[in-house]
Amino acid sequence: MAHLNPLSGGNFIRNEQPRSDGGSILKRFSLTGKTAIITGAAAGIGWAVAQAYAEMGCNIALWHFRNPEGPRRAEELIKRYNIICKAYRVDVRDTAAVDKAIDESVRDLNGRLDVFVANAGIPWTQGPMVDGPLDHYRDVVQSDLDSVYYCARAAARHWRRQRVESTDLFKNPLTDYSSGSFIATASMSGGIINIPQLQAAYNAAKAGVIHLIKSLAVEWALYARANSISPGYIMTEISDFVPQETKNIWHSKIPQGREGEPHELQGAYLYLASDASTYATGANFVIDGGFKKISLKFALVQNLGNQRSSDVTWVDNAATSLVSDPREIPKH
């Protein structure tokens, strides 16, 4: 399958498949007959995504590990939406376990893979890195970055085969298949330094996810799309350990004035899984209630001086330029 390598003789090989003819937007957002694997699917963002996909007709493999609710969640989706759904306990930090589970999931559902959502992850909870235990660092990086790589590698092999053979795992024709869609849950922390909490390992891992996805969008151009979603502060179990005093500081810097709810991310995950997003690849969707915009302005005020910070227009223009092109920060 070397001919699906996007680089040949130093030249970039583009995807030249015929463009979609559009058609009904409702049909393009439908996931009926498709199969998705979702990691970290028993709670939080992963569970919200699973519910959205199931409602849109998708067959789902719920991967869970630390949370034992997976089987019960699968039964709930089957009863509510009449889809094919099964739970699998998978340690996504183990590449052999990932390879085995993805093959089993595709075989158990309907022999095809359309969407993979790499959502599993854990927070950094040990304060300053200088005193933080290395075992916790390894666990965070393995859970939040390495696992995404392992899942992407395993999923891509299925998508490459499906593109070449145009069949599912049981050799049935794939008449309604164009490409795979890989969606990674990154974080706004991959592009900023959060305050007041200290979480260098988490920030670095999520930054790695964002750039990995951009790289995969190029490598997979002939058979799959890759995008990331970077949530801001979302009310899930992953942040239960955070003191309310810290959360109050978060809220004071979020234009929406609160943390988001998992269901407020469902639209983005649905868009990227569906045929409505066939031109979207290599993108990072930040959904943070406006936090990053405020954070950029705060940094400019603190680092570039109070005299400039008094010029509201300059700060606003500088923050906008910093997002698009740091070389274009306006002179004052």
Automatic annotation (TrEMBL):
GO terms for molecular function: mannitol 2-dehydrogenase (NADP+) activity; oxidoreductase activity, acting on NAD(P)H, oxygen as acceptor. It holds the Pfam family adh_short_C2. One of its GO terms (biological process) is mannitol metabolic process. Belongs to the short-chain dehydrogenases/reductases (SDR) family. PROSITE patterns: ADH_SHORT (PS00061). This is L-xylulose reductase. Keywords: NADP, Oxidoreductase. The keyword Oxidoreductase applies. Gene3D superfamilies: NAD(P)-binding Rossmann-like Domain (3.40.50.720). The keyword Zinc-finger does not apply. InterPro entries: NAD(P)-bd_dom_sf, Sc_DH/Rdtase_CS, SDR_fam.
